[in-house]
Write a structure and sequence with these properties.
By secondary structure, the protein is mainly alpha-helical. The protein is built from 7 helices and 2 strands; from the N terminus they run αββαααααα.
């Protein structure tokens, strides 16, 4: 039995996505050679000469603050204040999945896959820039992490597409039943819940960085 045209298109899209990820991985390896750094068990290691060059390119703190836009300085407390709810969200969502996902039989989301904090290794950044980069890396990784947990939860409890498509729906929406199709919902709900056992395969297309030779 043949799938729908949309199913065929999605299958081709998944193949193209895998090819794209492989090409991005190849380009990243070329960039590592160009900028003379390696990844060893996830840790960035620059060649000694590059670190010296980067230090010469670093802007001092006083010069950085003296030339900063007034609006940036005045809004800094607002940006940094979000760290409190971010940390609270991180703790609560992590507790949620460790408790509830075990009960539901949903594979837990590996937190470390979504948090990449590495830009502070760049010697051409001053202390403020490094802190900002750590903060942004944490916040962006947290949103991705929470979104994946939310997506798996939605697939288990309410796998129904919305009547109006959002700008950037998560990938699991593809498998949801159509809005208004009561028969499909009743018939497929249990099967869709069982599919969650394969959710660990979702991240399989992301290249895992190992030691560079």
């Amino acid at each position: 039995m043949h799938g729908s045209p949309i199913d065929d298109f999605l299958n081709r899209l998944h193949v193209l996505q895998a090819e794209l990820e492989a090409e991005i991985d190849r380009l990243l390896r070329e960039k590592r050679q160009l900028f003379r750094y390696t990844l060893e068990r996830g840790r960035v290691r620059f060649e000694k000469g590059m670190r010296v060059l980067h230090r010469h390119q670093r802007e001092g703190l006083w010069a950085y603050l003296r030339t900063a836009r007034l609006g940036h300085l005045l809004t800094a407390p607002v940006i940094y204040s979000l760290l409190i709810p971010f940390v609270a969200l991180d703790i609560m969502v992590t507790l949620y999945q460790h408790i509830c996902f075990r009960v539901y039989g949903i594979p837990r989301v590996l937190r470390s896959d979504y948090f990449v904090i590495d830009r502070h290794h760049l010697a051409y950044l001053n202390a403020i820039e490094k802190f900002n980069c750590v903060y942004c890396g944490y916040a962006s990784g947290l949103i991705e992490y929470v979104r994946e947990i939310s997506a798996r939860t939605e697939k288990y409890w309410c796998p129904i597409k919305h009547a109006r498509r959002t700008p950037d729906p998560h990938r699991l929406v593809e498998r949801f039943v159509d809005f208004g199709d009561a028969d499909a919902y009743k018939a497929r709900l249990r099967d869709l819940q069982k599919e969650i056992d394969a959710m660990e395969e979702i991240n399989s297309h992301f290249p895992q960085d190992g030691p560079d030779g």
